[in-house]
Amino acid sequence: MISIRFATAILLLSFTCAVALGQGAKRSTDVRIMSFNIRYGTANDGENHWDKRKEFLIETIKAFAPDLLGTQETLGFQRDYLAAQLSGYEVLGVGRDDGKEKGEMTALYFKRDRFEKLDGGHFWLSETPDIAGSKSWDAALTRMVTWVKLRDRLQPKAKPIMYFNTHFDHRGEQARTESAKLLRRRVAEARKTCRVIVTGDFNAGDNSDPYRAFFDKSENAAAPVADVFRVVNPTRSANEGTFSGFKVEATTGPRIDWIGVSPEWQVVKAMIDRTAREGHTPSDHFPMVAIVRPQATRR
Predict the structure, then answer these.
(1) Model pTM score
(2) How far apart are the C-alpha atoms of 238 and 15, rounded to whole Å?
(3) Which terminus has fewer CB within 10 Å in the chain: N or C?
(4) How far apart are CA 180 and CA 162, in angstroms?
(5) How far apart are CA 133 and CA 94, in angstroms?
(6) In this structure, what DSSP letter does residue 47 have?
């Protein structure tokens, strides 16, 4: 009798463990997003030079483990370094000056085991967006957008994801506003068939014309995406700055790095990553991070 009870207990324990393992194997459909201006690697930054902080930057990225990573100010050798260090990611990025290797990039990365690439490309923030290296309005430098269309392997029957990553001009006020309008039009078009995610360094705070042009209602039409940080933090605070200039304590400036998502996503988490070590930051921007969850399909 004792042996039968023992055997039954073993069977029950085995069944319980199998169920637990099966549940643990089920992957979350949440999408982890990071937007990170990594500071161009040839800058004369002294103690904060790329070679002295690149490993710290990689550790910061790995600590959050994004499914989607948008970088800004990325030069070709930095793009390739990240690609080599971040195993399991595919990268898309070209130089803004020629659409090849010349100039900074808005290189983006996505996890290969999570997403299947359906399409991808680039356009320029100008009056001729399909011409590589084009520049318009009062922009000081050539600016661009890199995008990729993805199928989520965990939701293969769901609408694809269109992911945009960008970097607006740092001087041209008109250029930033016109860039926001152009990007909004492209995002609105993508929303007809896709769920959308946007990351970038917009060089403008959330009380600016570019921000309103991108996120506010326009001509009675709702914005195609919402600011994830403001969804989670509806009241503006004094410590939302994302440009640090490599200073750990520099948190009171404007939040110039944004993440936007379309209504198909529920925002689970959105925050500014204040990672620092011994008085140093991994870049001169604090990265923005978010976790979003597919909204349940209404029947």
Answers:
(1) 0.91
(2) 53
(3) C
(4) 17
(5) 11
(6) G
